[in-house]
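Box 3.1 A note on notation
Throughout this textbook, protein chains are presented in two layers. The first layer is the amino acid sequence; the second is a token string describing backbone geometry. Keep the layers aligned when reading.
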Amino acid sequence: MPEVDLVDLERAPLLLRGRVLQEGRLLYSADEPGRVAFEVRARSEYFDFLPTQRAHRDRFLRRVAAGGWMVDPDRVHRRLALLAGYLRVLRRLRDLTLAEYLLHEV
């Protein structure tokens, strides 16, 4: 028995929407004019974005093939430092009453 995946294409991510419209099979349409309008719009958005997606994919694959990190360690460290600063502020604020908080400058 073939596998079937049901997807709400109105809510699906752009790349999934495009692939389903390219490779999937329509089973039922209760509103042909609405379906056609949706498909035209979705295909247009998909094909407009496809070169950007391919460029990102190719850049990612080149980095992986070159043995590069999949994440930028410096960026991760900067973000962690930022989060640590937020955590220090939140720890100072957690015991304040609402009145004290409203008067407090962070």
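DSSP finds four helices and no strands in the chain. The chain has a mean pLDDT of 88.
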